[in-house]
Amino acid sequence: MSENRPIVLTIAGFDPSGGAGVLADVKTFEQHRVYGFAINTANTIQTENEFSGIQWTDLTFILKSLEKLFNNHTIKAIKIGIVPSLEYLKQIVFTIKRHSPKTKIVWDTILKSTTEFNFLTIESRNDLTEILNQIDLITPNYNEIKILFPNFTPLSCFTNSLTFLRRGACEEVKCSVLLKGGHNPNEMGVDYLYTENEVYQILPKTGECYEKHGSGCVLSAAITANLALEQNLKTACEQAKIYTENYLQSNPTKLGFHHV
Q1: Comparing C-alpha atoms, which of 220, 242, 239, 14 is closest to residue 105?
Q2: How many Å apart are CA 195 and CA 184, to the nearest integer?
Q3: End-to-end alpha-carbon separation of the chain, Å?
Q4: Residue 86, φ and ψ in degrees, nearest 5
Q5: What distance in Å separates the CA atoms of residue 51 and residue 29, rounded to the nearest whole number?
Q6: pLDDT of residue 96
Q7: Integer Rg of the chain from CA
Q8: Is the pLDDT of residue 181 over 50?
Q9: Helices (H), the chain
Q10: Burial of 242 from C-beta contacts in 10 A (0-12 / 13-18 / 19+)
């Protein structure tokens, strides 16, 4: 394996259409010149237009796969996608940290499909906080952040810290948050990156994009790849947004083409 390609891992669902999940993630990894590993959390029955079924992978199988990979490779960054429960996610995250505390973790907080199929409910706020404090970045949209943090109220301006989130959400959450702007009616396409000490507004480069299945997967995978390439978090998110916009502009259908 080429020494100049860091290893990244996606732990996510298998989408037969290739638009989302591990197939989309590995396509994104390859374009970023990182070497992609994948572990399936679920097999799904879906197309780019319809989601009709899911079969979850047994957690023990996931954890054994993780241990095998960590025993043989150094994994720089990991993207996590759909999971069936917080306990499932917690076991994955803590297994990663036990084997490799320095590995970066990005959680694409997919709580339901675009066709309103629910994946994950928040059973325990304490568990959620415990998990988030082991994760480097989460990438919710405006609908998802209201589920993660029910008291969340979007502001028309941004502040200089995570006070914005903590005041209306959870004082104890320490992970960074990339609040995606795709569902924000007031600032369509404008993302906000909240880190411990700063907040950054990430503007779209274009307003002319086609709707795509799996765009959130592509964005979070691109960020994960960029972090593995030693980019700082702000740059990783900015570059991933550009990559995702190219994906959205690649053709008029819901299945995009990957290119740098």
Answers
A1: 220
A2: 20
A3: 22
A4: -65, -35
A5: 25
A6: 98
A7: 17
A8: yes
A9: 21-31, 59-72, 86-99, 125-132, 142-148, 163-168, 215-228, 233-248
A10: middle
| Strand, helix or coil for residue 137 | strand
d(CA 12, CA 79): 8
Residue 150 CB neighbour total at 10 angstroms: 12
Residue-level pLDDT at 154? 59
Rounded Cα distance, 179 and 108, in Å = 11
pLDDT confidence of residue 185: 67
CB 125 within 8 A of CB 170: yes
Give pLDDT tens digits for 78-123. 999 999 999 999 999 999 999 999 999 999 997 765 544 566 677 7
Nearest residue to 244 (alpha-carbon basis) of 141, 170, 100, 146: 141
Output the pTM of the full model: 0.89
Nearest alpha carbon to residue 161 among 146, 149, 171, 153:
171
The residue count for the chain: 260
* DSSP SS3 for 93: helix
Structural domains in the chain?
A: 7-140+217-248 (3.40.1190.20)
pLDDT 10s digits, 6-15: 999 999 999 9
Each residue's pLDDT tens digit, 113-137: 554 456 667 777 888 999 999 999 9
Contact (Cβ atoms closer than 8 angstroms) between residue 90 and residue 19: no
Structural tokens at position 228: 């593995």
Task: Tell me the C-alpha distance between 189 and 221, whole Å.
Answer: 18
Round to whole Å and give the CA distance between 120 and 109. 9
Query: Measured between alpha carbons, how far is 78 from 7 in angstroms, rounded to an integer?
Result: 9
What is the rounded CA–CA span in Å between residue 131 and residue 119? 17
